Amino acid sequence: MPVTELLERNARECGKEVALVELNPTTEDTRKYSFKEFELVHQTSPRPYRRQITWQVFDEKANRVANMLLDRGISKGDRVAILMFNCLEWLPIYFGILKAGAIAVPFNFRYTANEIAYCADLADVSVLLFGPEFIDRISTNADAISGGRLLIYVGEGTCPEFAESYWNMVADYPSTSPNIKLTEEDLAAIYFSSGTTGFPKAILHPHRSLTQAAEMEAIHHETTKDDCFLCIPPLYHTGAKFHWMGSLWTCSKAVLLKGAKPEVILKAASDEKCSIVWLLVPWAQDILDALDSGALKLSDYDLSRWRLMHIGAQPVPPSLIRHWKDYFPNHQYDTNYGLSESTGPGCVHLGLANTHKVGAIGVPGYRWECKIVDEEGKTVADGEVGELCVKGPGVMLEYYHNPEATAETLRDGWLFTGDMAMKDEDGFYFLVDRKKDVIVSGGENIYPVEIENFLQEHPKIKDVAVIGLPDKRLGEITGAIIETLPGVNCTEEEIEKFCAQLPRYKRPKKIIFADVPRNATGKIEKPALRKRYGADKLVEQENRS
Predict the structure, then answer these.
(1) How far apart are the first and last CA of the chain?
(2) Does residue 166 sit within a domain?
(3) What pLDDT was estimated at residue 435?
(4) For the segment 240-261, what is each residue's pLDDT rounded down to a tens digit?
């Protein structure tokens, strides 16, 4: 079925129940407007601390968006982009685009003005809806970004001259369904690759992918109508969107939290009685650090409803989960592996019953198959490292306008992920590293994730990234960028002594104490680190020392 049918079902069967809550911990105005009241004052008042809408209102707002787009000439298959921070308008706009038969194109909110224009051109975008945070970026390159497109401003205050006001546009359109006939094979969304391996590629998915993600999420995490999902990561990303889809499948409440400080997360989980919380590794580590230091006390919060903590988007250090269990011994735990090309998380997942396998990314997800192959595409034996390939109903159709990359990535229905992995004798898959992140030093393959997981065990280390650095003799040497815990002193000698447990060829040859940059979805920005700590930078450092 098309994913829009799930929203319409929820509006019929549980229309008066809360679907979405938006929390704004940074706002100074904590008055709790109803959604209707907020619409009346949005242009003159600051955004309130808490807003909510029911499933019926959610569906009605999506219908208004769909009818507006259709009236403005958008046809089935046209591309409509969203450039907004998480807010209560985000998902109704997304589903309004789908209800119009158009293709939703979420943009990364970190895009520069040039990247916005590039992605709009790549995806053949006809309409761009954007929030107030992006006025300056769009205005600096308005001609290129506009390019004949309709620009719609979704925000408070005065609408920019180069755009039209969302609030004025949708107000007078009917809240009834536009009745555009859709099937699960109709095109639904274009997502962009994270850009960690170069300029983003446009990833095309049909409705089938989205519906599969919703059902799979509910099954993997045993989501029921009584659950409440706390969503913190950005909705433009497949990880956040498709974890939320479990709430769509089960008609359960979700909370969109704007902010990721430890006290903000715990307060939201406590106040809203959240039962499922998805954290990125840095946020989980920050919570543990705050608890360890005494800055936060669990006794100040009611977390009795919180049953599941799950992490994805990056390798998870086993030490972090062991430490988490010290504070939350009754929590279920899951980790999910996926790519935007596989409709986000879940093509491989650990599973709630498999905490004893912490360190693995898990087993094939619901309706998915996996295999590991060598350079010639042949399946390798258990215990051997190769490229992870996945196959299932959530695989993308193509890289839009990029047949060469599509042919390289999709082969006989299998998605070649570019990730190196191995499978153990119990059938669990372990992520070793990105294929292009493998360090080749003196002919030896070194997998950075293995060393990162090892270093995470050091009591003074908060975060770590391992990259290859140029070396005349060995080709590459291993460099470790280490971010220590706040207020903690650590020396190279301490790290070298700790690494004596590793085989000599795996020990970091260069140790750099610095912050570890991560993108909005928690992935280490290794291209930025390679650029920052290339050969010239290292030579400069040696000359200064």
Answers:
(1) 64
(2) yes
(3) 67
(4) 899 999 999 999 999 999 988 9
**196, 220, 244 - which closes a domain:** 220
175 found inside a domain: yes
Q: Whole-structure pTM over 0.70, yes or no?
A: yes
C-alpha angle 65/247/180, rounded to 5°? Answer: 35
Closest CA to 94 of 199, 242, 208, 202: 242
* Tens-place pLDDT, residues 98-144: 999 999 999 988 888 888 999 999 999 999 999 999 999 999 888 88
Query: How many domains, the chain?
Result: 2
Classify the C-alpha dihedral 56-57-58-62 as positive or negative. positive
Helix, strand or coil, per DSSP, at residue 33: coil
Task: Indicate the SS3 state at residue 337.
Answer: strand
Length of the chain: 545
Domain that holds residue 501: 438-544
Give helix then strand counts, H and E, for the chain. 18, 27
Contact 216, 210 (CB under 8 A): no
Residue type at position 66: A
The domain that contains 488 carries what CATH number? 3.30.300.30
Q: Within a 10 A sphere around the Cβ of 377, how many other Cβ atoms?
A: 14
